[in-house]
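INTERNAL TRANSFER SHEET
From: sequence group
To: structure group
Subject: Zinc carboxypeptidase

Please process the attached sequence and return the structure record in the designated field. Keep the field labels unchanged so the import script can parse them.
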Amino acid sequence: EFPAGDEGYHTYAEVTTELQKAAANHPDIAVLSSVGKSYEGRELNLIKISDNAAADEGEPEVLFTCNQHAREHLTTEMCLHIVQRFTEGYANDPHIRSMVDGHVIWVVPNVNPDGSEYDISDTDYKYWRKNRRPVEDGKIGTDLNRNWGYKWGCCDGSSTRPASDTYRGPSAFSEPETQAVSRFVDSRAAGGKQRIKAHIDFHTYSELVLWPFGHTQDDTGEGMTAEENARFRDVGQRMAATNQYKAQQSSDLYVTDGDINDWMWGTHKILTFTFEMYPTSPFPGFYPPDEEIVRETTRNDAAVDILISEAR
Ligand code: 0X9
Ligand code: CA
Ligand code: ZN
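Return from structure group:
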């Protein structure tokens, strides 16, 4: 349960119920499944939103992922908001209808449900970041956003110490959660073509739009041409103009290796961003009051629409 006063946030069970409701109320355009299970056995829910969602119509696809980091609960609300906006808006909003008709929108609201449930398992938040798989004697958890398999551990952008909050895990994709999401993305590549064209991974906090690469401070080089980099900058800046976030290459914030965006771009050439959501300061930091959920998720509507329009 969320602490008293924050009941407007959704627990993992409540998110699952909302996704089931969305699929039940809009069966033509929403299908609920899972990419696999977390370490503790929770389904990693996956919802597909498209016209004729039961069919495979070959439309360009977009992916939204949330909650890689346990305590970043506002991001789960962001994914849930995306699901509800596109399912509930379909009947009466022509703009939403055209986006849903022309694309496949995939949403994974909880990449790290074990961690987020642990974070709210007591009366006070635990400030937990990693997953919950034990590493060694008393040390628990890998930073899922250092565990992805493109140049994993290459560049001093993650920790080898199991106690660290940025522990990269014993090997690339050592964790069931990163394995499951990456295998799902791999599965969308048919005949050598990746059908997921664009992706946002939501985090908190700092109000930033970040693009790859994270493992190097170079703007261009291996795996990133000047033209590709210019497109990231252009789309990133246009999205940031709608939500008043700051747009920059992710390594301008700090260098990471094994993050989700480096893998999505490095391996699949997916136009991929990290959004660091509200706020900018440590108070309220990871724990904004639930009264701010609607304002701060709606704030990203136009940016989400731009991302979808870039999937073609
Ligand atoms: O460190 C992270 O994983 C992300 N920030 S957070 O505060 N939510 O933990 C940012 C990842 C983006 N990549 C780079 N900065 N290289
Ligand atoms: Ca409240
Ligand atoms: Zn994060």
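Handover comment: The longest strand covers residues 196-204. The radius of gyration is 18 Å.
Transfer complete.
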